[in-house]
Protein backbone atom coordinates (compact mmCIF):
# COMPACT_ATOMS: atom_id res chain seq x y z
CA UNK A 1 0.00 0.00 0.00
CA UNK A 2 1.49 3.36 -0.95
CA UNK A 3 2.28 6.05 1.57
CA UNK A 4 -0.56 8.33 0.50
CA UNK A 5 -3.13 5.57 0.92
CA UNK A 6 -1.81 4.72 4.37
CA UNK A 7 -1.97 8.37 5.39
CA UNK A 8 -5.53 8.47 4.11
CA UNK A 9 -6.37 5.37 6.17
CA UNK A 10 -4.89 7.04 9.24
CA UNK A 11 -7.15 10.06 8.68
CA UNK A 12 -10.13 7.73 8.34
CA UNK A 13 -9.23 6.02 11.65
CA UNK A 14 -8.88 9.41 13.31
CA UNK A 15 -12.35 10.33 12.07
CA UNK A 16 -13.62 7.03 13.51
CA UNK A 17 -12.05 7.90 16.87
CA UNK A 18 -13.83 11.25 16.92
CA UNK A 19 -17.10 9.71 15.75
CA UNK A 20 -17.25 6.92 18.31
CA UNK A 21 -16.06 8.91 21.33
CA UNK A 22 -18.43 11.72 20.46
CA UNK A 23 -21.39 9.35 20.06
CA UNK A 24 -20.54 7.56 23.30
CA UNK A 25 -19.88 10.80 25.13
CA UNK A 26 -16.87 9.06 26.64
CA UNK A 27 -13.57 7.41 25.78
CA UNK A 28 -9.93 8.37 25.34
CA UNK A 29 -9.35 10.38 22.15
CA UNK A 30 -5.96 11.96 23.03
CA UNK A 31 -3.91 8.78 23.36
CA UNK A 32 -5.84 7.12 20.56
CA UNK A 33 -4.96 9.85 18.08
CA UNK A 34 -1.28 9.67 19.08
CA UNK A 35 -0.87 5.98 18.24
CA UNK A 36 -3.11 5.87 15.15
CA UNK A 37 -0.28 5.97 12.60
CA UNK A 38 1.46 3.00 14.23
CA UNK A 39 -1.75 0.92 14.24
CA UNK A 40 -2.54 1.72 10.61
CA UNK A 41 1.02 0.86 9.58
CA UNK A 42 0.77 -2.46 11.42
CA UNK A 43 -2.65 -3.58 10.16
CA UNK A 44 -2.40 -2.33 6.56
CA UNK A 45 1.25 -2.92 5.80
CA UNK A 46 3.41 -4.70 8.35
CA UNK A 47 1.55 -7.57 10.02
CA UNK A 48 1.35 -10.87 8.14
CA UNK A 49 -1.78 -13.00 8.02
CA UNK A 50 -4.18 -10.23 8.98
CA UNK A 51 -7.46 -11.48 7.54
CA UNK A 52 -10.89 -10.42 8.79
CA UNK A 53 -12.36 -13.59 7.25
CA UNK A 54 -9.98 -15.79 9.21
CA UNK A 55 -9.19 -13.82 12.33
CA UNK A 56 -8.15 -16.87 14.33
CA UNK A 57 -5.53 -18.11 11.82
CA UNK A 58 -2.91 -19.55 14.18
CA UNK A 59 -0.05 -18.31 12.01
CA UNK A 60 -1.14 -14.66 11.91
CA UNK A 61 1.00 -11.99 13.48
CA UNK A 62 -0.42 -10.90 16.83
CA UNK A 63 -1.17 -7.45 18.15
CA UNK A 64 -1.75 -6.47 21.77
CA UNK A 65 -2.88 -2.96 22.62
CA UNK A 66 -1.25 -2.80 26.03
CA UNK A 67 -2.49 0.76 26.51
CA UNK A 68 -6.02 -0.59 26.25
CA UNK A 69 -7.70 2.76 26.83
CA UNK A 70 -6.65 3.66 23.26
CA UNK A 71 -9.32 1.19 22.15
CA UNK A 72 -10.92 3.73 19.76
CA UNK A 73 -7.73 3.68 17.66
CA UNK A 74 -7.80 -0.12 17.54
CA UNK A 75 -11.53 -0.25 16.77
CA UNK A 76 -11.17 2.35 14.01
CA UNK A 77 -8.26 0.41 12.50
CA UNK A 78 -10.09 -2.94 12.70
CA UNK A 79 -13.18 -1.37 11.12
CA UNK A 80 -11.24 0.19 8.25
CA UNK A 81 -9.51 -3.17 7.80
CA UNK A 82 -12.91 -4.88 7.46
CA UNK A 83 -13.37 -6.75 10.75
CA UNK A 84 -16.76 -5.12 11.34
CA UNK A 85 -18.83 -2.26 10.00
CA UNK A 86 -18.97 1.36 11.20
CA UNK A 87 -22.45 0.75 12.58
CA UNK A 88 -20.69 -0.77 15.60
CA UNK A 89 -19.44 2.72 16.53
CA UNK A 90 -23.02 3.50 17.58
CA UNK A 91 -22.64 0.90 20.31
CA UNK A 92 -19.12 1.82 21.51
CA UNK A 93 -19.15 1.65 25.33
CA UNK A 94 -22.84 0.66 25.21
CA UNK A 95 -24.71 -2.31 26.67
CA UNK A 96 -24.26 -5.47 24.55
CA UNK A 97 -21.82 -3.72 22.19
CA UNK A 98 -18.79 -5.57 20.81
CA UNK A 99 -16.72 -2.40 21.26
CA UNK A 100 -16.30 -2.39 25.01
CA UNK A 101 -14.65 0.50 26.86
CA UNK A 102 -11.43 -1.51 26.67
CA UNK A 103 -10.63 -4.28 24.12
CA UNK A 104 -12.35 -7.60 24.87
CA UNK A 105 -11.12 -10.72 23.06
CA UNK A 106 -14.42 -12.48 23.76
CA UNK A 107 -16.56 -9.80 22.14
CA UNK A 108 -14.60 -8.03 19.40
CA UNK A 109 -13.30 -9.80 16.28
CA UNK A 110 -9.62 -9.19 15.56
CA UNK A 111 -8.67 -8.54 19.19
CA UNK A 112 -5.86 -10.84 20.38
CA UNK A 113 -5.92 -9.99 24.11
CA UNK A 114 -8.23 -8.27 26.56
CA UNK A 115 -6.40 -5.27 27.93
CA UNK A 116 -7.05 -2.17 29.97
CA UNK A 117 -5.27 -2.95 33.22
CA UNK A 118 -2.00 -1.22 32.39
CA UNK A 119 1.21 -3.20 32.21
CA UNK A 120 -0.51 -6.47 31.48
CA UNK A 121 -0.62 -6.29 27.68
CA UNK A 122 3.13 -6.23 27.23
CA UNK A 123 3.49 -9.16 29.63
CA UNK A 124 0.87 -11.13 27.68
CA UNK A 125 2.68 -10.24 24.45
CA UNK A 126 5.92 -11.59 25.93
CA UNK A 127 4.09 -14.84 26.73
CA UNK A 128 2.72 -14.98 23.18
CA UNK A 129 6.19 -14.49 21.68
CA UNK A 130 7.65 -17.12 24.03
CA UNK A 131 4.81 -19.52 23.25
CA UNK A 132 5.27 -18.91 19.52
CA UNK A 133 8.96 -19.73 19.73
CA UNK A 134 8.24 -22.83 21.77
CA UNK A 135 5.63 -24.15 19.34
CA UNK A 136 7.62 -23.27 16.23
CA UNK A 137 5.07 -20.65 15.16
CA UNK A 138 6.85 -18.10 12.95
CA UNK A 139 4.47 -15.27 13.79
CA UNK A 140 5.65 -11.91 15.11
CA UNK A 141 4.07 -10.27 18.14
CA UNK A 142 3.55 -6.50 18.31
CA UNK A 143 2.41 -4.51 21.30
CA UNK A 144 1.81 -0.79 21.80
CA UNK A 145 2.49 0.50 25.31
CA UNK A 146 2.01 3.95 26.79
CA UNK A 147 4.51 6.17 28.50
CA UNK A 148 2.29 6.64 31.53
CA UNK A 149 1.84 2.87 31.46
CA UNK A 150 5.61 2.51 31.70
CA UNK A 151 5.30 3.59 35.34
CA UNK A 152 3.85 0.13 36.02
CA UNK A 153 6.48 -2.26 37.36
CA UNK A 154 5.04 -5.08 35.27
CA UNK A 155 6.28 -3.36 32.08
CA UNK A 156 9.82 -3.86 33.31
CA UNK A 157 9.28 -7.38 34.61
CA UNK A 158 8.00 -8.26 31.15
CA UNK A 159 10.91 -6.46 29.49
CA UNK A 160 13.40 -8.41 31.58
CA UNK A 161 11.75 -11.66 30.52
CA UNK A 162 11.68 -10.60 26.84
CA UNK A 163 15.43 -10.09 26.87
CA UNK A 164 16.08 -13.21 28.98
CA UNK A 165 14.21 -15.41 26.53
CA UNK A 166 15.79 -13.63 23.54
CA UNK A 167 12.44 -12.82 21.97
CA UNK A 168 13.44 -11.39 18.61
CA UNK A 169 9.88 -12.15 17.45
CA UNK A 170 8.57 -9.37 19.70
CA UNK A 171 8.27 -5.66 18.93
CA UNK A 172 7.33 -3.29 21.74
CA UNK A 173 6.17 0.11 20.49
CA UNK A 174 6.17 3.02 22.93
CA UNK A 175 3.60 5.71 22.17
CA UNK A 176 5.55 8.51 23.83
CA UNK A 177 3.21 11.48 23.81
CA UNK A 178 4.52 12.67 27.15
CA UNK A 179 1.15 13.00 28.85
CA UNK A 180 -1.18 11.07 31.13
CA UNK A 181 -4.40 11.72 33.01
CA UNK A 182 -3.09 13.97 35.76
CA UNK A 183 -0.55 15.90 33.69
CA UNK A 184 2.70 15.44 31.83
CA UNK A 185 4.83 12.39 32.61
CA UNK A 186 7.33 14.70 34.28
CA UNK A 187 4.68 16.24 36.51
CA UNK A 188 3.21 12.89 37.55
CA UNK A 189 6.18 10.53 37.65
CA UNK A 190 9.25 11.19 35.53
CA UNK A 191 10.26 8.37 33.24
CA UNK A 192 13.84 9.61 33.22
CA UNK A 193 15.83 8.55 30.20
CA UNK A 194 13.32 6.07 28.84
CA UNK A 195 15.49 5.20 25.84
CA UNK A 196 18.47 4.41 28.04
CA UNK A 197 16.22 2.32 30.26
CA UNK A 198 14.98 0.30 27.27
CA UNK A 199 18.57 -0.24 26.11
CA UNK A 200 19.61 -1.26 29.61
CA UNK A 201 16.79 -3.80 29.76
CA UNK A 202 18.22 -5.51 26.69
CA UNK A 203 16.06 -4.21 23.85
CA UNK A 204 17.32 -3.35 20.40
CA UNK A 205 16.00 0.22 20.40
CA UNK A 206 14.98 2.36 17.46
CA UNK A 207 13.89 5.92 18.17
CA UNK A 208 11.53 7.61 15.75
CA UNK A 209 11.74 11.41 15.78
CA UNK A 210 8.14 11.85 14.62
CA UNK A 211 6.00 8.89 15.53
CA UNK A 212 3.07 10.43 13.66
CA UNK A 213 4.99 10.48 10.38
CA UNK A 214 3.86 7.40 8.47
CA UNK A 215 7.09 7.02 6.53
CA UNK A 216 9.22 7.21 9.67
CA UNK A 217 6.96 4.71 11.44
CA UNK A 218 7.13 2.30 8.49
CA UNK A 219 10.90 2.56 8.28
CA UNK A 220 11.21 1.63 11.95
CA UNK A 221 8.75 -1.26 11.71
CA UNK A 222 10.50 -2.61 8.57
CA UNK A 223 13.97 -2.54 10.12
CA UNK A 224 15.37 -6.08 10.16
CA UNK A 225 15.12 -7.86 13.51
CA UNK A 226 18.23 -8.00 15.67
CA UNK A 227 18.83 -11.72 16.27
CA UNK A 228 18.37 -12.69 19.91
CA UNK A 229 16.99 -9.33 21.03
CA UNK A 230 13.47 -7.98 21.40
CA UNK A 231 12.81 -4.77 19.46
CA UNK A 232 11.70 -1.52 21.14
CA UNK A 233 10.46 1.31 18.94
CA UNK A 234 10.29 4.62 20.74
CA UNK A 235 7.75 6.74 18.89
CA UNK A 236 7.82 10.41 19.82
CA UNK A 237 4.19 11.29 19.24
CA UNK A 238 1.75 14.12 19.81
CA UNK A 239 -1.24 13.57 22.05
CA UNK A 240 -4.45 14.41 20.19
CA UNK A 241 -2.60 14.41 16.82
CA UNK A 242 -4.64 15.69 13.91
CA UNK A 243 -7.21 17.72 15.84
CA UNK A 244 -5.94 21.25 16.44
CA UNK A 245 -7.66 21.87 19.74
CA UNK A 246 -6.70 18.46 21.15
CA UNK A 247 -3.02 18.47 20.19
CA UNK A 248 -0.69 18.58 23.17
CA UNK A 249 -3.57 18.98 25.61
CA UNK A 250 -3.63 16.81 28.74
CA UNK A 251 -7.36 17.51 29.13
CA UNK A 252 -8.26 15.37 26.12
CA UNK A 253 -6.88 12.18 27.64
CA UNK A 254 -10.23 10.83 28.73
CA UNK A 255 -12.80 13.36 27.54
CA UNK A 256 -15.10 13.04 24.53
CA UNK A 257 -15.77 15.90 22.12
CA UNK A 258 -19.29 17.34 22.10
CA UNK A 259 -21.23 17.54 18.83
CA UNK A 260 -19.84 20.93 17.87
CA UNK A 261 -16.25 19.96 18.69
CA UNK A 262 -16.66 16.68 16.83
CA UNK A 263 -17.90 18.49 13.73
CA UNK A 264 -14.88 20.77 13.78
CA UNK A 265 -12.51 17.83 14.34
CA UNK A 266 -14.04 15.84 11.49
CA UNK A 267 -13.66 18.85 9.20
CA UNK A 268 -9.97 19.10 10.08
CA UNK A 269 -9.55 15.38 9.37
CA UNK A 270 -11.19 15.38 5.96
CA UNK A 271 -9.59 13.71 2.98
CA UNK B 1 0.09 -44.54 57.26
CA UNK B 2 2.14 -43.09 54.40
CA UNK B 3 2.43 -39.32 54.52
CA UNK B 4 3.10 -37.02 51.61
CA UNK B 5 2.66 -33.29 51.12
CA UNK B 6 0.15 -32.30 48.45
CA UNK B 7 2.79 -29.99 46.94
CA UNK B 8 5.01 -33.06 46.39
CA UNK B 9 2.13 -34.87 44.73
CA UNK B 10 1.57 -31.78 42.55
CA UNK B 11 5.16 -31.98 41.32
CA UNK B 12 4.82 -35.69 40.58
CA UNK B 13 1.49 -35.20 38.84
CA UNK B 14 2.96 -32.56 36.54
CA UNK B 15 5.67 -34.94 35.39
CA UNK B 16 3.09 -37.59 34.60
CA UNK B 17 0.89 -35.08 32.84
CA UNK B 18 3.85 -33.74 30.87
CA UNK B 19 4.58 -37.22 29.61
CA UNK B 20 1.02 -37.68 28.32
CA UNK B 21 0.50 -34.17 26.93
CA UNK B 22 3.26 -32.20 25.21
CA UNK B 23 1.15 -29.02 25.33
CA UNK B 24 1.67 -28.83 29.08
CA UNK B 25 4.26 -26.24 30.09
CA UNK B 26 5.22 -25.23 33.62
CA UNK B 27 6.08 -21.73 34.80
CA UNK B 28 7.61 -20.95 38.16
CA UNK B 29 8.86 -17.83 39.92
CA UNK B 30 12.15 -19.01 41.41
CA UNK B 31 10.52 -21.48 43.79
CA UNK B 32 10.76 -24.73 41.87
CA UNK B 33 12.49 -26.48 44.75
CA UNK B 34 9.59 -25.57 47.04
CA UNK B 35 6.62 -25.89 44.70
CA UNK B 36 8.23 -29.17 43.56
CA UNK B 37 8.10 -28.27 39.88
CA UNK B 38 11.82 -29.07 39.89
CA UNK B 39 10.93 -32.63 38.90
CA UNK B 40 9.17 -31.34 35.77
CA UNK B 41 12.11 -29.03 35.11
CA UNK B 42 14.42 -32.03 35.20
CA UNK B 43 12.19 -34.23 33.04
CA UNK B 44 11.20 -31.61 30.45
CA UNK B 45 13.66 -28.71 30.65
CA UNK B 46 12.46 -27.29 27.31
CA UNK B 47 8.93 -27.02 28.70
CA UNK B 48 9.89 -25.38 31.97
CA UNK B 49 10.02 -21.58 32.13
CA UNK B 50 11.43 -19.75 35.11
CA UNK B 51 9.97 -16.26 35.29
CA UNK B 52 12.24 -15.02 38.03
CA UNK B 53 10.84 -13.44 41.16
CA UNK B 54 8.02 -11.77 39.26
CA UNK B 55 4.73 -13.52 39.95
CA UNK B 56 2.56 -10.99 38.13
CA UNK B 57 4.65 -11.34 34.98
CA UNK B 58 4.50 -15.13 35.28
CA UNK B 59 0.71 -15.09 35.20
CA UNK B 60 0.43 -12.82 32.15
CA UNK B 61 3.19 -14.71 30.35
CA UNK B 62 1.17 -17.86 30.92
CA UNK B 63 -1.88 -16.03 29.54
CA UNK B 64 0.04 -15.21 26.37
CA UNK B 65 1.43 -18.75 26.06
CA UNK B 66 -2.06 -20.21 26.35
CA UNK B 67 -3.07 -18.30 23.20
CA UNK B 68 -0.50 -20.38 21.31
CA UNK B 69 -2.31 -23.60 22.21
CA UNK B 70 -0.19 -24.44 25.25
CA UNK B 71 -1.54 -25.45 28.68
CA UNK B 72 0.51 -23.48 31.19
CA UNK B 73 0.66 -24.42 34.87
CA UNK B 74 1.77 -21.42 36.96
CA UNK B 75 3.39 -22.42 40.23
CA UNK B 76 4.24 -20.33 43.25
CA UNK B 77 3.15 -19.85 46.86
CA UNK B 78 -0.56 -19.38 47.51
CA UNK B 79 0.15 -16.13 49.33
CA UNK B 80 1.20 -14.64 45.98
CA UNK B 81 -2.31 -15.16 44.65
CA UNK B 82 -2.81 -11.71 46.10
CA UNK B 83 0.32 -10.30 44.49
CA UNK B 84 -0.69 -11.52 41.03
CA UNK B 85 -4.43 -11.08 41.50
CA UNK B 86 -4.99 -8.39 38.89
CA UNK B 87 -3.19 -10.59 36.38
CA UNK B 88 -5.26 -13.65 37.34
CA UNK B 89 -8.42 -11.55 37.10
CA UNK B 90 -7.89 -9.43 34.00
CA UNK B 91 -5.13 -11.35 32.22
CA UNK B 92 -6.57 -14.84 32.57
CA UNK B 93 -10.14 -15.02 33.91
CA UNK B 94 -11.63 -12.05 32.02
CA UNK B 95 -10.66 -13.52 28.62
CA UNK B 96 -11.19 -17.05 30.06
CA UNK B 97 -7.72 -18.22 29.00
CA UNK B 98 -6.62 -21.81 29.55
CA UNK B 99 -4.19 -21.23 32.42
CA UNK B 100 -3.79 -23.36 35.56
CA UNK B 101 -2.56 -22.16 38.94
CA UNK B 102 -0.89 -24.72 41.19
CA UNK B 103 -0.29 -22.62 44.27
CA UNK B 104 1.40 -24.28 47.23
CA UNK B 105 2.29 -23.59 50.86
CA UNK B 106 -1.26 -22.51 51.64
CA UNK B 107 -2.57 -22.09 55.17
CA UNK B 108 -0.94 -22.00 58.57
CA UNK B 109 0.62 -25.47 58.13
CA UNK B 110 3.24 -23.65 56.05
CA UNK B 111 4.76 -23.19 59.50
CA UNK B 112 7.96 -21.37 60.34
CA UNK B 113 7.96 -18.74 57.55
CA UNK B 114 5.14 -17.09 59.44
CA UNK B 115 2.06 -15.00 58.83
CA UNK B 116 3.50 -13.04 55.90
CA UNK B 117 3.61 -16.27 53.93
CA UNK B 118 0.56 -18.16 55.22
CA UNK B 119 -2.27 -17.68 52.74
CA UNK B 120 -5.58 -17.71 54.57
CA UNK B 121 -7.43 -15.73 51.90
CA UNK B 122 -6.63 -17.42 48.58
CA UNK B 123 -9.86 -19.41 48.34
CA UNK B 124 -11.91 -16.27 48.92
CA UNK B 125 -9.96 -14.48 46.20
CA UNK B 126 -10.33 -17.32 43.71
CA UNK B 127 -13.97 -18.21 44.39
CA UNK B 128 -15.18 -14.79 43.41
CA UNK B 129 -13.64 -14.83 39.93
CA UNK B 130 -16.13 -15.74 37.17
CA UNK B 131 -15.21 -18.92 35.32
CA UNK B 132 -12.53 -20.01 37.80
CA UNK B 133 -12.58 -23.63 38.97
CA UNK B 134 -11.24 -23.93 42.53
CA UNK B 135 -9.75 -27.24 43.68
CA UNK B 136 -8.43 -28.13 47.13
CA UNK B 137 -7.02 -31.66 47.21
CA UNK B 138 -7.05 -33.31 50.63
CA UNK B 139 -4.21 -35.74 50.00
CA UNK B 140 -1.66 -36.89 47.44
CA UNK B 141 -4.06 -39.11 45.51
CA UNK B 142 -6.60 -36.34 45.20
CA UNK B 143 -3.84 -33.99 44.05
CA UNK B 144 -3.00 -36.35 41.17
CA UNK B 145 -6.70 -36.38 40.26
CA UNK B 146 -6.98 -32.59 40.48
CA UNK B 147 -3.99 -31.97 38.21
CA UNK B 148 -5.23 -34.47 35.64
CA UNK B 149 -8.71 -32.96 35.71
CA UNK B 150 -7.40 -29.39 35.51
CA UNK B 151 -5.65 -30.12 32.22
CA UNK B 152 -8.94 -31.32 30.75
CA UNK B 153 -10.86 -28.18 31.70
CA UNK B 154 -10.82 -25.45 29.04
CA UNK B 155 -10.32 -22.42 31.28
CA UNK B 156 -8.67 -21.22 34.47
CA UNK B 157 -8.24 -23.64 37.37
CA UNK B 158 -6.78 -22.96 40.81
CA UNK B 159 -5.27 -25.87 42.76
CA UNK B 160 -4.39 -25.23 46.41
CA UNK B 161 -1.65 -27.40 47.87
CA UNK B 162 0.22 -27.48 51.17
CA UNK B 163 3.73 -27.93 52.48
CA UNK B 164 3.06 -30.23 55.41
CA UNK B 165 3.20 -33.99 54.74
CA UNK B 166 -0.26 -35.42 55.43
CA UNK B 167 -1.78 -38.92 55.29
CA UNK B 168 -2.34 -40.54 51.91
CA UNK B 169 -5.76 -42.18 51.79
CA UNK B 170 -7.06 -44.77 49.35
CA UNK B 171 -8.11 -43.10 46.10
CA UNK B 172 -11.76 -42.02 46.05
CA UNK B 173 -14.06 -41.45 43.08
CA UNK B 174 -13.29 -38.08 41.53
CA UNK B 175 -15.52 -35.78 39.53
CA UNK B 176 -14.91 -32.05 39.46
CA UNK B 177 -17.73 -30.36 41.34
CA UNK B 178 -18.71 -33.44 43.37
CA UNK B 179 -18.03 -33.95 47.06
CA UNK B 180 -17.19 -37.26 48.68
CA UNK B 181 -18.95 -38.74 51.69
CA UNK B 182 -16.09 -39.96 53.85
CA UNK B 183 -18.33 -41.24 56.64
CA UNK B 184 -22.07 -41.31 56.89
CA UNK B 185 -23.76 -40.19 60.11
CA UNK B 186 -26.99 -38.72 61.41
CA UNK B 187 -26.41 -36.49 64.46
CA UNK B 188 -24.44 -33.76 62.71
CA UNK B 189 -22.37 -33.24 59.59
CA UNK B 190 -18.86 -31.87 59.13
CA UNK B 191 -17.96 -30.42 55.76
CA UNK B 192 -14.24 -30.10 55.14
CA UNK B 193 -11.58 -29.74 52.46
CA UNK B 194 -7.83 -30.00 51.97
CA UNK B 195 -5.47 -31.09 54.68
CA UNK B 196 -8.11 -30.67 57.37
CA UNK B 197 -9.45 -34.07 56.31
CA UNK B 198 -6.97 -35.75 58.69
CA UNK B 199 -8.09 -33.63 61.62
CA UNK B 200 -11.81 -33.88 60.93
CA UNK B 201 -11.44 -37.68 60.77
CA UNK B 202 -9.90 -37.47 64.23
CA UNK B 203 -12.72 -35.20 65.35
CA UNK B 204 -15.30 -37.72 64.14
CA UNK B 205 -13.58 -40.40 66.27
CA UNK B 206 -13.59 -38.10 69.31
CA UNK B 207 -17.29 -37.40 68.79
CA UNK B 208 -18.01 -41.13 68.45
CA UNK B 209 -16.44 -41.67 71.90
CA UNK B 210 -19.09 -39.28 73.21
CA UNK B 211 -21.82 -41.22 71.41
CA UNK B 212 -22.24 -38.66 68.64
CA UNK B 213 -22.64 -40.12 65.16
CA UNK B 214 -21.14 -37.47 62.88
CA UNK B 215 -21.18 -37.55 59.10
CA UNK B 216 -18.08 -36.28 57.27
CA UNK B 217 -18.13 -34.93 53.74
CA UNK B 218 -14.97 -33.78 51.94
CA UNK B 219 -15.06 -31.33 49.02
CA UNK B 220 -12.09 -31.28 46.67
CA UNK B 221 -13.96 -28.72 44.55
CA UNK B 222 -14.89 -25.44 46.19
CA UNK B 223 -16.15 -24.02 42.91
CA UNK B 224 -18.34 -25.15 41.24
CA UNK B 225 -19.57 -26.36 44.63
CA UNK B 226 -21.59 -29.54 45.14
CA UNK B 227 -24.65 -27.70 46.44
CA UNK B 228 -26.81 -30.79 46.12
CA UNK B 229 -24.71 -33.00 48.37
CA UNK B 230 -24.21 -30.25 50.94
CA UNK B 231 -27.93 -29.53 51.12
CA UNK B 232 -28.74 -33.25 51.32
CA UNK B 233 -26.57 -33.68 54.40
CA UNK B 234 -27.60 -30.38 55.96
CA UNK B 235 -31.27 -31.37 55.71
CA UNK B 236 -30.53 -34.85 57.01
CA UNK B 237 -28.33 -33.88 59.98
CA UNK B 238 -29.67 -30.39 60.80
CA UNK B 239 -26.41 -29.51 62.58
CA UNK B 240 -23.71 -28.31 60.17
CA UNK B 241 -20.04 -27.55 60.77
CA UNK B 242 -17.42 -26.50 58.23
CA UNK B 243 -13.72 -26.98 58.90
CA UNK B 244 -11.01 -25.45 56.74
CA UNK B 245 -7.43 -24.25 56.97
CA UNK B 246 -8.46 -20.85 55.64
CA UNK B 247 -10.16 -17.75 56.95
CA UNK B 248 -13.73 -18.43 58.04
CA UNK B 249 -14.53 -15.55 55.69
CA UNK B 250 -14.89 -16.39 52.02
CA UNK B 251 -13.83 -20.02 51.89
CA UNK B 252 -15.60 -23.38 52.24
CA UNK B 253 -17.77 -22.14 55.09
CA UNK B 254 -19.12 -19.32 53.00
CA UNK B 255 -19.71 -21.66 50.06
CA UNK B 256 -21.94 -23.70 52.39
CA UNK B 257 -23.64 -20.92 54.40
CA UNK B 258 -26.03 -19.54 51.75
CA UNK B 259 -27.21 -23.04 50.91
CA UNK B 260 -28.63 -23.53 54.39
CA UNK B 261 -31.21 -20.76 54.30
CA UNK B 262 -34.69 -22.19 54.65
CA UNK B 263 -33.44 -25.77 55.03
CA UNK B 264 -34.39 -26.21 58.69
CA UNK B 265 -30.79 -26.23 59.91
CA UNK B 266 -30.62 -25.83 63.69
CA UNK B 267 -26.90 -25.22 64.16
CA UNK B 268 -24.25 -23.88 61.82
CA UNK B 269 -20.66 -22.99 62.68
CA UNK B 270 -17.64 -22.20 60.56
CA UNK B 271 -14.38 -23.49 62.02
CA UNK B 272 -11.14 -22.13 60.56
CA UNK B 273 -8.90 -19.10 60.95
CA UNK B 274 -10.97 -16.48 62.73
CA UNK B 275 -10.26 -13.29 60.78
CA UNK B 276 -6.65 -13.05 61.87
CA UNK B 277 -3.22 -13.66 60.37
CA UNK B 278 -1.03 -16.62 61.21
CA UNK B 279 2.44 -16.60 62.77
CA UNK B 280 5.68 -18.57 62.89
CA UNK B 281 5.76 -21.93 64.57
CA UNK B 282 5.87 -25.65 63.96
CA UNK B 283 2.84 -26.76 61.92
CA UNK B 284 1.65 -29.06 64.73
CA UNK B 285 1.89 -26.23 67.29
CA UNK B 286 0.09 -23.84 64.93
CA UNK B 287 -2.79 -26.29 64.47
CA UNK B 288 -3.17 -26.35 68.26
CA UNK B 289 -2.83 -22.56 68.52
CA UNK B 290 -5.66 -22.03 66.04
CA UNK B 291 -7.85 -24.83 67.38
CA UNK B 292 -7.68 -27.07 64.34
CA UNK B 293 -6.65 -30.44 65.81
CA UNK B 294 -9.16 -33.29 65.96
CA UNK B 295 -9.88 -33.06 69.70
CA UNK B 296 -10.20 -29.26 69.53
CA UNK B 297 -12.57 -29.45 66.57
CA UNK B 298 -14.66 -32.02 68.46
CA UNK B 299 -14.69 -29.79 71.51
CA UNK B 300 -15.77 -26.73 69.50
CA UNK B 301 -18.54 -28.79 67.93
CA UNK B 302 -19.75 -30.13 71.28
CA UNK B 303 -19.82 -26.66 72.79
CA UNK B 304 -22.08 -25.56 69.92
CA UNK B 305 -24.60 -28.37 70.32
Produce the secondary structure layout.
The complex is a heterodimer of chains A (271) and B (305).
Chain A: H1 3-24, H2 29-46, E1 62-65, H3 71-80, H4 120-135, E2 141-146, H5 153-164, E3 170-176, E4 179-180, E5 183-184, H6 185-188, H7 194-200, E6 204-208, H8 214-222, E7 231-236, H9 259-268
Parallel strand pairs in A: 1-2, 2-3, 3-7, 6-7
Antiparallel strand pairs in A: 4-5
Helix pairs in contact in A: 1-2, 1-3, 1-9, 2-3, 2-8, 4-5
Chain B: E1 3-4, H1 6-20, E2 24-28, H2 32-35, H3 38-43, E3 48-50, H4 55-66, E4 71-77, H5 80-83, H6 85-93, E5 100-104, H7 122-127, E6 133-135, H8 140-152, E7 157-160, E8 166-167, E9 180-183, E10 188-192, H9 196-209, E11 214-218, E12 221-223, H10 227-237, E13 239-247, H11 252-256, E14 267-273, H12 283-289, H13 294-304
Parallel strand pairs in B: 2-3, 2-4, 4-5, 5-7, 6-7, 10-11, 10-13, 13-14
Antiparallel strand pairs in B: 1-8, 6-12, 9-11
